[in-house]
Write a structure and sequence with these properties.
217 residues; alpha/beta; single chain; three-stranded antiparallel beta sheet; eight-stranded mixed beta sheet; binds 5-O-phosphono-beta-D-ribofuranosylamine; globular; 6 helices
């Protein structure tokens, strides 16, 4: 059994709506986790205000103040490790992380990505889904590895692409699902159901060979 409640540090860059979903789930008792800190690489990130309103300590590690990626990541790692998290969650964190940083948090760092991975890794997923004429789209929670947006996917939720969709409308539909699946996966970690050993994800003691799918609500 993992420590209870699970100690989490969240990394953000902006709006922080996924962070808010995690804060809310921890507050309403459905997620046995304590968010020890929220760290942003952008001083003006709206998510910092959400954290402050929830009484969560915040730190800014401004990437523009570091000469290179390695220097930034070393400072970020120090800021994260001050809080000794069992789990690091990337919640709209928009920086590519160095292999050293990723290795340091191997098996204890999650990301949420607004597509049905392995489709549409990287940026502008909603625009790309529409441009390709996809009939469905969605969101994925995955363990972070060196392979950008390519680590093992744990849970996904699908949404239909509707006639007349714009990237904004599609993004909003996907975001509703993001807010469901991220707290859910963190809960699995908190309850000791989910872990990654080597490159293998174990859910409830069994290897996870394909992502779980969260049903429609
Ligand atoms: C989300 O769509 C997330 O999947 C992506 O960036 C966006 C962040 O939104 N990685 P928010 O900051 O959580 O509101």
């Amino acid at each position: 059994m993992t420590q209870s409640p699970l100690a989490v540090v969240a990394l953000i860059s902006g709006r922080g709506s996924n962070l808010q979903a995690i804060i809310d789930a921890a507050a309403d008792g459905s997620l046995p986790a304590v968010i020890r800190a929220v760290i942003s690489n952008r001083p003006g990130a709206d998510g910092l205000g959400r954290a402050a309103r929830a009484g969560i300590p915040t730190t800014v590690v401004d990437h523009t103040r570091y000469p290179d990626r390695a220097g930034f990541d070393a400072a970020l790692q120090q800021a994260v490790d001050r809080y000794q998290p069992a789990l690091v969650v990337l919640a709209g964190f928009m920086r590519v992380l160095t292999p050293d940083f990723v290795a340091h948090y191997h098996g204890r760092m999650l990301n949420i990505h607004p597509s049905l991975l392995p489709r549409f890794r990287g940026l502008h997923t909603h625009e790309r889904a529409l441009a390709e004429g996809a009939t469905e789209h969605g969101a994925s929670v995955h363990f972070v590895t060196d392979d950008l947006d390519g680590g093992p996917v744990v849970l996904q939720a699908r949404v239909p692409v509707l006639a007349g969709d714009t990237p904004e409308r599609l993004a909003a539909r996907v975001l509703v699902q993001e807010h469901r699946i991220y707290p859910e996966v963190i809960r699995w970690v908190a309850e000791g159901l989910l872990r990654m050993e080597g490159g293998q994800v174990l859910l409830d003691g069994a290897p996870l060979s394909s992502p779980r799918l969260l049903g429609a609500q």
